[in-house]
Design goal:
It is built from four helices and seven strands; from the N terminus they run E-H-E-H-E-E-H-E-E-H-E. With about 150 residues, it is an alpha+beta fold. It has one domain. Strand 4, helix 3 and strand 5 form a beta-alpha-beta unit. The protein starts with a strand and ends in an 8-residue tail after the last strand.
Length: about 150
């Protein structure tokens, strides 16, 4: 499986990304070391645009390969509270990430709040087989078209 993670240019040499160690997100609290990733670059961009007030500049795209046989912890829209897409998101979403980490899976599949019929993934960086099952394939500039904002 190939996934994409967008980050600020200044973090282009940081692997694995460390943002979730210091900041909370819809699915994590600070300290839960996960990488947010999308199956397409366009969905990854949509996720960034939804969380930025200005057009992002100097972004980097990390192309990530996940080994074929990994356990995936799946969260479906039916599992979630009705207000799961709101901002700020309900704190109960973090419970899914806690369960995911405790499950021993490397990947958690979640619905995208920007396109709920599509999926995003969280990668468990602290998983004991992370180095064997997750590989950084490429890091490259990923510009945003100025017409997007």
């Amino acid at each position: 499986m190939i996934l994409y993670h967008l980050d600020k240019w200044k973090y282009k040499e940081v692997w694995p990304p460390e943002g979730s160690l210091f900041a909370d997100g819809r699915w994590n609290k600070p300290g839960q070391w996960v990488i947010y990733a999308s199956p397409t670059i366009s969905l990854a961009k949509l996720e960034i645009l939804a969380n930025e007030s200005n057009l992002p500049v100097k972004r980097v795209c990390m192309t990530i390969e996940i080994a074929e046989k990994v356990d995936v912890f799946e969260v479906t829209q039916k599992d979630l509270p009705a207000n799961w897409m709101e901002k700020p998101s309900p704190g109960s979403l973090i419970d899914y990430t806690k369960q995911f980490i405790e499950s021993g899976s490397i990947l958690m599949q979640v619905p995208s709040a920007q396109s709920y019929r599509e999926q995003n993934y969280l990668i468990n960086v602290r998983h004991p087989e992370f180095q064997k099952k997750v590989r950084l394939l490429d890091v490259s500039a990923e510009p945003f078209d100025i017409r997007l904002k």
